[in-house]
Amino acid sequence: MNHYSDIEILKQYIDRTKEILELSSPQLTGVENGEEYRRLLLRSFTKIGELAKENNRILNKHFYPLIQSTSRLTSEDILTMRDFTSSLMDATSMENIDLPLIYMQTERMLREANARGDLRDIILALDSMVIASYMMFNLTYRLYPEFSYCFNYRDSGFDAAMKLLEYLPPEKFVLLPDDECKELVLINSRYVRCMFEWENKEDRSYWNENDLKLMRRALSLADDPFYRNEMPNYSWDVHVFRTLQYLADFTEDHNKHGFNREQLEEIYSYTKEMVSFLQGHEELAKGCPQVEQELYLLRNSYLAGHKSKEVYKHELCDLMSLKDPTDITARGMFINFTIPYEYILTLDKDHLSAEEAEMLRTIYKDIARYAYRLPKTGVLSFMLTFLSDVLRHFIEVPGGMDFETLCLDLIAVMHPPSYVHTLSVSNFCSFLTTRLLEKDPEKFVGILDTKSVEDVLQKKQEIVQFSYHGALLHDIGKLFIVETIITYGRDLPEEEFELIRTHPEIGASLLNQFPDTAPYAEFARGHHKWFDNSAGYPNGFDMLHAKNRTLVSILTVADCLDAATDAVGRSYKDGKSLDDVIAELKEASGTRYAPYLTSILNDDDVYPGLQKLLQEGRDGNYRKAFSVLKEL
Question: pTM for the full model?
Answer without folding.
Answer: 0.90
